């Protein structure tokens, strides 16, 4: 389980994340949704211990990320701004991660098969398409066979087949009792994947809850989002 409690992050004269609180529960896919610049990536970085909050805290199974004894066995993560060395072969990239985290070497071949890259393991990453690099990032997140997945814009660069694959994979992952948190600004696509949604705009939570409740009275999640943010922005004027 992931718990975000009154998380706030200030950058000089701006507030990227403002008093954000939500929970991500096992057995469900939770979408963390909002436009670009809304505070999604900043929140994920604080959950993963890459940035320190100005106030508040983020807990993974009751502990901060840095307190986890075996981080990659607990949490697998894909961040939008992270990537392998372009000249490195895909298989070597995953071997390095596995060895440095004392993960079994057999997992490299296993995850490459899962993400559909078994045919291109020895190709240099610079020769990968954007979609292939995205699949490689997901493979790296899966190396530790974690109970929790945190994915930032996971469908970025994927073709329709890849989008269908990741949707099915994440739903099956959650159905096995695991926890999935994915961020996206593509609400129409994400609505086909998630059980719960947390919507953020300008660093603040706009709404959160089961997808069916958030979209009640609206034709789509996208329509619900624009209605909610329009009301909020109107009240701030």
From TrEMBL:
Keywords: ATP-binding, Hydrolase, Nucleotide-binding, Transport. InterPro entries: AAA+_ATPase, ABC_transporter-like_ATP-bd, ABC_transporter-like_CS, P-loop_NTPase. It is an enzyme of class 3 (hydrolase). Its EC number is 3.6.3.-. The keyword Isomerase does not apply. It comes from the Bacteria. One of its GO terms (molecular function) is ATP hydrolysis activity. PROSITE patterns: ABC_TRANSPORTER_1, ABC_TRANSPORTER_2. Coiled coil: none annotated. Belongs to the ABC transporter superfamily. This is Putative ABC transporter ATP-binding protein YxlF. It comes from Actinoalloteichus hoggarensis.
